[in-house]
Design goal:
The protein is an all-alpha fold and about 200 residues long. It has seven helices and no strands. The longest helix is centred in the middle third of the chain and has 32 residues. The C terminus is likely disordered.
Length: about 200
């Protein structure tokens, strides 16, 4: 596995440059995106079930996904703080677009941490963790009986809105502005200039 990763990263830019994100940032971004979509899908699916066993089977996937996203987000924050810096902001965009992009990115972090906190709070307060992961035969509690359920549900809807804004902005830059901005968040080979 290690050899595979080394071969995959060879010739790739691990850290970000002024014009694009590095391999680590790109990997965390796309892995987080996929897991967030799976998390949202499993969360809405679980909330649609009345049957406790069916809900428990979905939540037994949903909870570890949520913890994984929390850990990935902590790794991402640590990466930006201690190891890397983000590329320069694109020039030529109106100030409101630049501020909106910053706000959406900050809100992603706020919502991820808020949903993780409310999800963990629900598991602790309701005792559902032992039902899902410790083999308890008890039925799942009604999560609406616990205060963290409300912000968790609101957070899921805010996350969908943020994803729509983020994807919409990426598509706008790619198809309307045609500025190549979307390629900053993709794996790229080192250019001859960067190899020198």
């Amino acid at each position: 596995m290690t050899l595979f990763l080394i071969q995959t990263l060879r010739g790739r830019i691990v850290k970000s440059t002024a014009t694009g994100y590095g391999t680590v940032a790109v990997t965390i971004h796309w892995l987080s995106a996929i897991l967030i979509l799976a998390l949202l899908g499993s969360g809405f699916r679980a909330s649609s079930f009345v049957d406790s066993a069916a809900k428990a089977s979905v939540l037994s996937v949903h909870v570890p996904l949520g913890i994984t996203i929390l850990l990935l987000t902590l790794v991402r924050v640590a990466w930006w703080v201690f190891a890397d810096s983000k590329p320069s902001h694109p020039t030529g965009d109106p100030a409101w677009q630049t501020m909106s992009a910053k706000a959406v990115h900050i809100l992603f972090y706020v919502v991820i941490f808020g949903m993780a906190a409310s999800g963990i709070g629900m598991m602790i307060l309701s005792g559902a963790g032992s039902i899902l992961f410790a083999g308890s035969d008890a039925p799942l509690p009604d999560f609406w009986d616990y205060l963290p359920r409300v912000p968790h549900g609101i957070g899921a809807r805010v996350m969908i809105a943020l994803l729509a804004l983020h994807i919409g902005a990426a598509l706008y830059h790619h198809f309307i502005k045609k500025d190549g901005l979307i390629w900053r968040m993709w794996f790229r080979q080192k250019t001859q200039r960067e190899r020198s």
